[in-house]
Amino acid sequence: MNEMIRGALAAHRRNVRLLRRRPDLVAQGVLVPLVVLVLCAILFGSWGDRWPVGVIDRADDARSAAITDSLAQSRSNVDLYFETIEDDPRAAREMLEDGRLQLVITIPEDVATTNEVRISTYNVNTDATKNLRFRVDDALNIHDEVRGALPATVDLRTVAEEDVTRAAFIAGGVLLLALLLGSMLLAANVFAVEEEGRTAKELLMSPFGAAPAALGCVLTATLLAYLSAVPTYLTGLLLFGFTPDVGSLVLVLLFMLPLLVAAAGLGVLLAQLLRQHRAVQPPVILVAIATFFVGGGFVSVPGMPPTARTIAQWWPPSRVFEWSNPVLHDFAGSYTAGQWAWGGAFALLGVAGAYWAGRRELAAPRRGGQ
Amino acid sequence: MWSAIRAMVRKDLTLSRRSPVFVVITVLVPLVFVSLYALLVTVSTTSPVAVAQEGGGPHSERLLQILRTMHNTDGELFEIRTTDPGDARAMFAAGEVGAVLTIPADFDDRVSAGVPVEVPLRVYNINADGTKNFELRAEGAVREFARDTGGGVPVTAVRENSHFREDMGTSAYLGTALLVFAVLYASMVNTGTLVAREWEDRTAKPLVLSPVGNAPLLGGKWLSAGVQTLAGTVLVLAGLAWLLDFPALSLGAASWLGLFVLFAYGSALGTLLGVTLRRSLPLVPLCVVLAIVHFFLSGYESYLRGFAHGGAVEWLWASTHWWPTAGLTQDLRLDATGLGDGGTDWAALGGTAGIAALLTLLAVVRMRRQLRFTQGQ
């Protein structure tokens, strides 16, 4: 046993030296989450809830002023719903034609008698246009509530005093993705190096075979995954308002340790099966990104449609997001004992998988002069 | 020349047949990604919610009916998971639903008496987007209810005038972006790894220095990659048609030409990366990143355009919206849905083809100038 541990530590030391010389083995685990974070946070979250609109007040009377006020008051928990950037009818129409505005609200001269406002939409897709219409509904509800036209109103009550902004939620999810992807990809890359670098034979001819090297890859990947996730964390912190409590963050990082061991073990196993970087990387990277989107990193699982919920129920990585997001954003104080137990079980499975992969190397076909 | 190209294709396809794992992966992985991402389409449409229906009169039933039937062309806007008050609160407490909307016990009495009543909506606000979605839908429901109830003061009416004759379904909108992603990813990875493989397998030198020039190498790689990309694209189209009801059969000749140009563009990128990096290790993640960047920036350009006013989002849009793949993607979706005017965005097509030609030229120059071979080559 001691020899196995010494072998794993030796492999780990070798891996660290190798990674110093070959930053391309680490770079992917850093680059992919960063790109996902920056694009998703800017596209879906950085602009808050303010939708740029055109508002044309042709009536200029008390009623139209009340409607305009309602549009200015309409807001979500984090931001206003509308930002009027154009009030000139012609300019607004041209911007709408070009798709540079998706909503122009016109209050006609006779609004007091017709009780009707007009909206022009650049109905680019059902999702965006539905949101625009609902925002108009929200503003007019404010107006009509004052007029006594609403028999029922919505009373929004939230669990926490303040919402977690979408950009911060995405940043938290991508941090978890960066850790998991970093660990799995690094382990797979380092293990596949033996095949691609034609050094697998030397490992097999050592007294303990390739199993210590496989365990060494798990150790290296688990430890370096934390380092590879630092750029993602800092980007979320500095650019997208992701400011978790230090205690919560430390707890999440600690909880991730057994899960990173599991991810690394799976990475080694995949590398042993698929042998080459070009075969290992596409499934690991794309399935990891897809897991982020449908496994709870982008939207919480309870907010997903039935099929996605069913997949998340059976897809272990989605547990990482579902268990860690509440802790990360202070909606839960800690993990449950059951969650820790599952984490430990996954880690054991990861170690066992890596060990088995090392043993399987004996049966693997040799090629390329090996 | 042609015999050299045929020989190159035969060699690559034989290698693929002998070692099919990579081919299977390049064909199936985009399908898996596209299928999983497709599930997100319904997230933007349908919000799962629990309703605690304490009131049992006609007004309560009417409000519940409105909640049940609110929809757009993509589907229902609410998925009501229960209407039992006890179950609703238990599900919310257990984190099984993100919101619980209560129709209070005195709802009917107060509505009948003309006394405004509040409908509590409790939300687990871990994501502001979710909170906003629940709230806006609920606001829409109470507005619809007010219209139906028709009290003494009528609600303000809204008359809408839309740019397109009907809203484009989000499934078609995102489905097109996913199709573009799949074609770009497959063409880049397939061509790039086929090119880089020659260096990895130490067979590049005779190919690059061949007296027939570089055309057989590039032509052969493009043809081999084309076969694999075509297989992957057909699978993705079938997947999109099945999962998102994507109108794959509505794609006209111009759209197929657009997809071919996208393949050429992706292959040119893959070729340039292949001859520059000469290893698949850094190449594959770069291809993934490039495909994802195109997916978000070109796939969502027409959506981004409307709210890119100020801040990082405007900078991002302004610096990327002119890239021709954005116009090509929008053209594809207008053709697939029949919402366009029937014209073709030749500027986008020509621009993409021009960039593909330029990238290929760069790849050839790079290959000819970087005549360094290592490790026994």
Describe the protein's topology.
The complex is a heterodimer of chains A (370) and B (377).
Chain A: H1 2-21, H2 24-44, E1 51-57, H3 62-73, E2 82-86, H4 89-98, E3 103-107, H5 111-114, E4 116-121, H6 126-147, E5 152-158, H7 166-196, H8 200-204, H9 211-228, H10 230-239, H11 246-274, H12 277-294, H13 306-314, H14 316-328, H15 337-360
Parallel strand pairs in A: 1-2, 1-3
Antiparallel strand pairs in A: 3-4
Chain B: H1 2-18, H2 21-45, E1 47-53, H3 58-69, E2 71-72, E3 75-76, E4 78-82, H4 85-93, E5 99-103, H5 107-113, E6 117-123, H6 128-149, E7 157-162, H7 170-200, H8 204-208, H9 215-244, H10 253-277, H11 280-297, H12 301-307, H13 311-320, H14 324-337, H15 346-369
Parallel strand pairs in B: 1-4, 1-5
Antiparallel strand pairs in B: 2-3, 5-6
Membrane topology (chain B): Multi-pass membrane protein
Transmembrane segments (chain B): 21-40, 172-196, 222-244, 256-276, 283-300, 346-365
Protein name (chain B): ABC transporter permease
How would you describe this protein?
The complex is a heterodimer of chains A (370) and B (377). Chain A is an alpha/beta fold and 370 residues long. Chain A folds into 2 domains: 2-43 and 165-363, no CATH class; 52-147, D-Maltodextrin-Binding Protein, domain 2, CATH 3.40.190. Chain A has 15 helices and 5 strands. Chain A is elongated. Chain A starts with a helix and ends in a 10-residue tail after the last helix. Chain B has 377 residues and is an alpha/beta fold. Chain B has 2 domains: 2-40 and 166-369, no CATH class; 46-149, abc type-2 transporter like fold, CATH 3.40.1710.10. Chain B is 68% helix and 9% strand. In chain B, the strands form 2 sheets. A 4-stranded mixed β-sheet of chain B has the order 4-1-5-6, with helices on both faces. In chain B, strand 2 and strand 3 form a beta hairpin. The chains are: A alpha/beta (370), B alpha/beta (377). At the A-B interface, helix 2, helix 4, strand 4, helix 6 and strand 5 of A face helix 2, helix 5, strand 6, helix 6 and strand 7 of B. Strand 4 of chain A pairs parallel with strand 7 (157-162) of chain B, so a sheet runs across the interface. Chain A: One of its GO terms (cellular component) is plasma membrane. Chain A: GO terms for molecular function: ABC-type transporter activity. Chain A: Its main location: membrane. Chain A: This is ABC transporter permease.
